[in-house]
């Protein structure tokens, strides 16, 4: 039974008497439910998601549930419930078949009680614990025995120290530490976990250096190092992370140099940088970047910028793309599309902007970008907000163009005109039909 998003404040009490009900979703609702009679219920989803608060304690809010959970002996998946009620938390220990548990609003003083409960859940595969807010400490040190079948662990809240039992999770494949703000390098504690494939740190470490060494993380495929504000150095020893496919870094305002050792990650396919320093961004550009050689082997490199744009540009996605073809309608923007659809064997830079006007212009021209599986690369496409100023300056320094401008102003060369901004322009149907090319300063350079 699915009440997801239902615009109602209550449901019939008779729902609580559906003895054979196995699935109940209360997502995105405000429904208080008496569920003690649903003895065969296996799946209970009770939460609300706020998609406008990513990486916030308010991103997923629990739906309050009355006591009586201990009677749901068949329950296998339970998410998300509030831990404010100690009695309700203690009832979770009776759910011997539980495989997935997500719990929210955990206060520090209730952490020990939760550890006692979780230790009883021997079938648990996924555990997600959220503190009341980003500053609340998660007190999870008291768990003595590791969960033998746990494969996913997500902790949202401050950690004074990484719980010792985490290093004993031999079955875990994914861990996430959000707002943990650990002073000691957490990677050194978990690098020996034999089956670990995903690590996500968001404000999870307050130190200045991360060093991946000792042949650790032999199965890791995704590493996210997000919002590490004090990190100024990242070192990856040769031979570590041999299977890493995705690496996400930033914002790291103190990280001024390209992380050492990325050039040795031969399996890396996706490299994302979030709100990084301009000097680091420039160092990785194909034409003149001093560190470009370190990422030359990576098919997809992206720089994400939000808030204040990098280099006075609008929010954008800047990256190196693996094989890009352009589909377009005949007679529409052929010059643009032909230039873009040329392929070369070397890396190039592409830029997609969130500017609504440009996106609409591309749609009107019938241009569609299609990513393929081959190893070819698209031609360069960058946006230059100051391009017109640069052209104007260059024209003034060119004696031949100065003479042409004088003739144009006398009305002798109709193919050209001098616009109000003082720039000499060549007048064609393409230029008049697609003014955004000049307005937004797109530069398309064939390889």
From TrEMBL:
Record-linked SUPFAM superfamilies: L domain-like
Task: Report the protein name in the record.
Answer: Disease resistance R13L4/SHOC-2-like LRR domain-containing protein
Domain of life assignment: Eukaryota
The record ties this protein, via InterPro entries, to: LRR_dom_sf, LRR_R13L4/SHOC2-like
Q: Where is the Disease resistance R13L4/SHOC-2-like LRR domain?
A: 7-269
- Keyword annotations of the record: Repeat
What is the species of this protein?
A: Lithocarpus litseifolius
